[in-house]
Specification:
The complex is a heterodimer of chains A (about 290) and B (about 290). Chain A is mainly α and about 290 residues long. Chain A has 13 helices and no strands. The radius of gyration of chain B is 19 Å and the shape is globular. Chain B has ten helices and ten strands. Chains A and B meet through helix 8 and helix 9 of A and helix 2, helix 3 and helix 6 of B.
Chain lengths: ~290, ~290
């Protein structure tokens, strides 16, 4: 610092000197970037803070263990919706995650094949479909068709349709990150292609594949529109896939559009629970994914 | 990919080598059996030809070096020998490769079986990062679903780590990640991994180009040791290395059409001291490349 202080500005040749206007431009640009960043962070903090502030008072033991009560009765909780969301997530995950991973493997590992490009294109198209359209389709196909009435399985299928392209596209990016040298090493050891994928490519990409699954689950756990037309909602405890089932977003929607203050408070409580559940699942899987051979 | 070698080449010098090895009587023709042979082998990437009409023989127990400037098709040629070339999208090969009695490119030959019999070591050490040292060596037998007891696998891992001169350095960290080893150790781990499936031929694609001189020296020592048990083909852009380790050397060069062809093939001593072809002489004296 002392050295810098005794260097006279004039010692720097004119064409290497930074002029004042440039310093100002630099300051303005950095300031704008900082502002944008602060805005984004502030938005996140505000939403989270508001949900916590409004939701926290609604929480109680009963909120997590009891079923909703009719308006007028005090207490009651959202336990069926919690169970319903977990059931829907589990069933849709079981359907969608293997299909999405398989599609991604097909696109990346067999990319010289004729069908890789159409598969990727199809995934992009499905990803672009509004979720209500998927809901309408599943409603026509399952609720009015195969099943004949509103059912949890229809909700799970609708969520699975939403999840497949998310899983497929995320896993595709992750598989592309696996160095080709590892595939070559395994192939050169005399491993058949499918063994290379199962034993080398997927384990190497394990953390990323898990992240893809979390991303898709988190996204689908918050979906409301397709569930309105398929799972319908249920005030009673049910894990029966052939009956209507409750879900947190449905519960939030029903409480939020109601005219009652007590239900509004419960909607905030349920929102907080949904945010925390999604966050906790993500955190848990990330910890699991981080464990590797030391 | 193989056509673009980015590693910088050392300044070529006149490579002379005579004192290091005891002068053995020169047999006019080698009586040794042939492990691997190519006949009119050509390789293509899409429509671009990379290797043209190469005829080579690799003797059992000998170390054969393939040298040549970047882009001469030497790595591509090597990858044709175990049908790794065709794993690159659009790549194909024509001609014949004979591995003992096996016609490598016959329609009835499964490339997986070929790669089972021919091991390969790559330019950059590529141990499986999510596997331990132990699991890396065990990877080949496991990927091929060999039925082995725990005990047999332990023996196999130790035996091959010893063959790769790595056992003493890693015996206390067998269950640590293979990626935590030094570069030279990683490459020897890859050699152990390739040896673990008992190949009769070991292909090495510039195995030292990513290593420092000491690690390089160790690998070269190892290659010489291993040549007693397995036929070795080593691609190198380092002429000193070729002259240090190999008995026979093939020199390849790409023509103006970009097709790599075999220019000269013979005993390493002869090729480096009395090259028959003026292009070989120009290359080994550092006048191009």
């Amino acid at each position: 610092m002392a050295v810098a202080a005794i260097t006279p500005r004039s010692a720097i040749p004119a064409r290497h000197r930074v002029v004042a206007s440039r310093r100002i431009a630099q300051g303005v640009v950095v300031g704008l970037l900082l502002l944008a960043t602060l805005l984004a962070v502030a938005l996140l903090v505000t939403i989270l803070g508001y949900v916590i502030a409004r939701g926290l008072p609604a929480l109680s033991i009963a909120f997590f263990t009891e079923r909703p009560r009719p308006f007028g009765e005090d207490g009651g909780g959202i336990a069926p919706a919690l169970i319903g969301t977990l059931v829907l997530a589990a069933v849709s995950g079981v359907i969608a995650i293997p299909v999405g991973i398989a599609a991604a493997i097909f696109v990346v590992e067999y990319r010289s094949g004729r069908f890789a490009a159409p598969v990727r294109f199809a995934a992009e198209l499905i990803a672009g479909l509004p979720s209500i359209v998927i809901g309408v389709f599943v409603w026509a196909f399952l609720v009015r068709g195969l099943v004949g009435h509103y059912a949890a399985i229809a909700g799970a299928v609708a969520l699975a349709v939403i999840m497949v392209p998310i899983v497929a596209r995320t896993v595709e990016e992750v598989l592309k990150l696996v160095p080709n040298s590892l595939r070559e090493a395994a192939l050169a050891l005399g491993a058949p292609r499918w063994r290379v994928i199962v034993s080398v490519v997927l384990p190497t990409a394990r953390a990323g594949v898990l992240t893809a699954a979390i991303l898709a689950l988190a996204r689908s756990a918050g979906e409301t529109a397709p569930l309105l037309l398929t799972a319908l909602g249920n005030d009673f405890f049910s894990a029966d896939l052939l009956r209507p089932i409750a879900a947190l977003p449905l519960q939030i929607y029903r409480y939020a559009v109601s005219p009652y203050d007590d239900w509004h408070a419960k909607a905030w409580g349920a929102s907080l629970v949904l945010v925390v559940v999604i966050g906790a699942v993500g955190l848990l899987l990330r910890v699991v994914a981080r464990q590797r051979v030391r | 990919m193989t056509m673009q070698e980015t590693t910088s080449r050392e300044t070529p010098q006149v490579a002379t080598r005579r004192v290091e090895k005891p002068a053995e009587p020169v047999a006019p023709a080698s009586p040794r059996a042939i492990a691997l042979r190519t006949e009119k082998l050509s390789a293509y990437y899409g429509t671009a030809q990379a290797v043209g009409d190469v005829d080579l023989t690799f003797e059992v127990g000998a170390i054969t070096a393939i040298i040549g400037p970047s882009g001469c098709g030497k790595s591509t040629l090597l990858r044709c020998l175990n049908r790794m070339h065709e794993t690159t999208p659009g790549a194909r090969a024509t001609g014949r490769v004979l591995l003992g009695d096996v016609d490598v490119y016959a329609a009835a030959t499964d490339p997986v079986e070929v790669r089972s019999m021919v091991g390969m070591v790559f330019q950059k050490p590529n141990p499986f990062p999510m596997m331990s040292v132990y699991d890396n060596v065990a990877a080949g037998p496991r990927l091929r679903a060999w039925k082995m007891s725990r005990r047999e696998m332990d023996d196999l891992v130790e035996r091959n780590l010893r063959r790769a001169a790595l056992w003493d350095e890693v015996k206390d960290k067998l269950h640590r990640s293979g990626a935590a080893l030094s570069g030279g150790q990683q490459q020897r781990l890859c050699i152990a991994r390739a040896l673990a499936t008992d190949p009769s031929v070991l292909l090495m694609d510039e195995p030292c180009s990513a290593l420092d001189p000491i690690a390089t020296y160790k690998i070269e020592e190892l290659v010489r040791e291993l040549s007693h048990e397995v036929t070795i083909v080593i691609v190198t852009h380092n002429m000193q290395q070729a002259s240090r380790v190999s008995e026979r050397t093939a020199f390849m060069l790409a023509g103006d059409d970009g097709v790599g062809r075999l220019v000269e093939f013979g005993r390493t001593d002869d090729l480096f001291t009395l090259p028959r072809d003026t292009r070989t002489e120009a290359y080994i004296t550092g006048r191009f490349g």
